[in-house]
């Protein structure tokens, strides 16, 4: 309580009628990265007490769904689901509310119960964020966006790479509203990838076409992959370096006879 009384965002939330000081984190994340747009369907995972739900509804004006193991006090225009985000039944309930097409945006400001043991708390945070990412992959539309809170530590970079494998644009970001002593940071993933290839995937291909820039162009499950440094007729083993929503880039790792 003493910490709260010295916190300008605590009093700002009180004055402006938001449920949580965390509301300003989402405003700041959205101001920087334009995650939620007017009319978007938004799902908030681990949403209690509802601070991010209020902001998501205010920004999008569209359908907003909050999910938590705890009951969330009603918010006008917001629908809620009580359930475990790792359970198929919860996924079905979410899709029942947002439609089978999925959500435009999935956000998660949830944190694990803290023990005071930093290594344990970091591991719990990573486990929770992986659950959020797994849920997002099941309910996001193609090209949808994702924001999740994670505690920094030894496993942070590995999780960042997992997000990067599923989104065309990935960044980490610390909003000003995060407390200075906090180790929390937010990972932003934009343009959810549903392509048949991922960074690091390897394929053996024959170059039958060249793109307008002179790079080789091959189709993998009807998805275009551009390959540098090849000529028509080359048979090569390639490794995907970068994936965009509509195409990917790869490099040659072996030339085949």
From TrEMBL:
Residues 196-254 form the TRAM domain. It is an enzyme of class 2 (transferase). GO terms for cellular component: cytoplasm. Keywords: Cytoplasm, Methyltransferase, rRNA processing, S-adenosyl-L-methionine, Transferase. The active site is at residue 149. Pfam families: FtsJ, TRAM. Gene3D superfamilies: Nucleic acid-binding proteins, Vaccinia Virus protein VP39. One of its GO terms (molecular function) is rRNA (uridine-2'-O-)-methyltransferase activity. Its EC number is 2.1.1.166. S-adenosyl-L-methionine binds at residues 50, 52, 68, 84, 109. InterPro entries: NA-bd_OB-fold, RNA_methyltr_RlmE, RNA_MeTrfase_FtsJ_dom, rRNA-MeTfrase_E, SAM-dependent_MTases_sf, TRAM_dom. It is found in: Cytoplasm. It catalyses: uridine(2552) in 23S rRNA + S-adenosyl-L-methionine = 2'-O-methyluridine(2552) in 23S rRNA + S-adenosyl-L-homocysteine + H(+). Belongs to the class I-like SAM-binding methyltransferase superfamily. RNA methyltransferase RlmE family. HAMAP family: RNA_methyltr_E. PANTHER family: PRE-RRNA 2'-O-RIBOSE RNA METHYLTRANSFERASE FTSJ3 (PTHR10920:SF13), RIBOSOMAL RNA METHYLTRANSFERASE (PTHR10920). Specifically methylates the uridine in position 2552 of 23S rRNA at the 2'-O position of the ribose in the fully assembled 50S ribosomal subunit. This is Ribosomal RNA large subunit methyltransferase E.
């Amino acid at each position: 309580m003493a910490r709260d009384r010295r916190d300008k965002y605590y009093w700002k939330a009180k004055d402006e009628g938001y449920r949580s000081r965390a509301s300003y984190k989402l405003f700041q994340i959205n101001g920087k990265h334009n995650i939620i747009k007017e009319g978007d369907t938004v799902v908030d995972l681990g949403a209690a007490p509802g601070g991010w739900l209020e902001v998501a509804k205010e920004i999008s004006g569209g359908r907003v769904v909050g999910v938590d193991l705890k009951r969330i006090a009603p918010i006008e225009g917001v629908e809620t689901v009580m359930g475990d985000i790792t359970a198929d039944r919860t996924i079905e309930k979410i899709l029942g509310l947002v439609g089978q097409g999925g959500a435009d945006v999935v956000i998660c400001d949830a944190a694990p119960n803290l023990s005071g043991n930093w290594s344990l708390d970091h591991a719990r945070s990573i486990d929770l964020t992986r659950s959020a990412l797994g849920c997002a992959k099941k309910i996001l539309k193609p090209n949808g966006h994702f924001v999740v809170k994670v505690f920094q530590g030894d496993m942070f970079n590995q999780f960042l790479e997992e997000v990067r494998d599923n989104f065309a644009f990935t960044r980490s970001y610390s909003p000003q509203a995060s407390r200075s002593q906090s180790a929390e940071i937010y990972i932003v993933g934009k343009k959810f990838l549903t392509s048949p290839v991922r960074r690091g995937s390897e394929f053996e291909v024959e170059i039958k076409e060249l793109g307008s820039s002179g790079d080789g162009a091959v189709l993998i499950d009807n998805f275009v992959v551009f390959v540098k440094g090849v000529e028509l007729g080359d048979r090569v083993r390639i490794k995907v370096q970068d994936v965009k929503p509509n195409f990917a880039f790869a490099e040659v790792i072996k030339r085949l006879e």
